[in-house]
Amino acid sequence: MIKNLQDTTTLYNSVKMPWLGIGVFKVEEGPELVNAVKYAIKHGYRSIDTAAIYQNEEGVGQAIKEGLAETGLSREDLFVTSKVWNSDLGYESTLAAFETSLKKLQLDYLDLYLIHWPVEGKYKDAWRALETLYKEGKVKAIGVSNFQVHHLEDLMKDAEIKPMVNQVEFHPLLTQQEVRAYCKANEIQVEAWSPLAQGQLLDHPVLQEIANHYNKTIAQIILRWDLQNGVVTIPKSTKEHRIVENADVFNFELSNEHVEQINQLNKNHRVGPDPDNFDF
Q: In the sheet that 232-233 helps form, which strands lie side by side, from edge to edge?
């Protein structure tokens, strides 16, 4: 059982990745962003997920710098993720994009760097760049985001190093069984973005009934379900009380029956783009 906010999963290359982190999708540069990341660090979060396309890496970098100074933690205590955007996919362009992200974040290395979307005809060259960055020690782990099974199979035909992480949309309405089964068989850690389906599940009657049973919120039930399914998760919030609440999922465990009840809510419903039909 995952027992606290600092608990980690071990990637196949022995790098330890926190099970729970904070995401900053759609949080604009400014005090709200800086404070959110600092709240997370203060309250025990050790994983921070951003991306070039979010256009907030500078604020995240500032928050990390201030958060570490205020808590006395060291850089090595944090697990920082960013992603290369579609327009930068390619060998040289990915290497350049990585350096830009690193500079904005004011860091010497990243813990995890991901290809954000599987743009056909481009992701293999980008992956070669990630392999180079990994070999050079500029990133501790490399992976992909939004890759379906056929994308992963195609990538691994030519890859020298297989992805360590696949970050995908995952929530009770989109349980991604095929992707998760493939990743498990290939030692690729699945990570959830939009675990709360951008708020679409927060009044779901089945989830509310389960939440009442455990005296928890629906959000806490979903995040606990993620963890019990072996999925790393990065809920987004900018409010301090919500950041604290999202982390209060380590003092209870869902029964197998409740886990299965939530699994059955799947409708293959996406709140984000379909990786196979995304206008890149």
A: 22-23, 47-49, 79-84, 110-115, 139-145, 165-169, 189-193, 232-233
217 found inside a domain: no
Residue 75 lies in a domain: yes
Question: What mean pLDDT comes out for the span 228-247?
Answer: 97
Provide the 10 A C-beta neighbour count for residue 266: 14
- Structural domain of residue 108, as residue ranges? 8-200+230-248
Report d(CA 223, CA 195) in Å as an integer.
7
Largest CA distance in the chain: 53
- Cα distances (angstroms) measured from residue 21 to each of 54, 57, 85, 96, 97: 17, 16, 21, 27, 23
Residue 27 located in a structural domain: yes
The pair of three-digit structure tokens given for residue 212, joined into one six-digit string: 């009442």
- Whichever domain contains 192, its CATH number is 3.20.20.100
d(CA 120, CA 251): 43
State residue 63's pLDDT score.
98
Residue 116 counted as an annotated binding residue: yes
Task: Report the catalytic residues.
Answer: 54
Number of domain units in the chain: 1
User: What torsion, rounded to 10 degrees, do the Cα atoms 175, 178, 11, 8 define?
Assistant: 20
Mean pLDDT, range 43-66, rounded to an integer: 98
Is the pLDDT score of 280 beyond 70? no
C-alpha atoms less than 13 angstroms from C-alpha of 132 in its C-beta half-sphere: 15
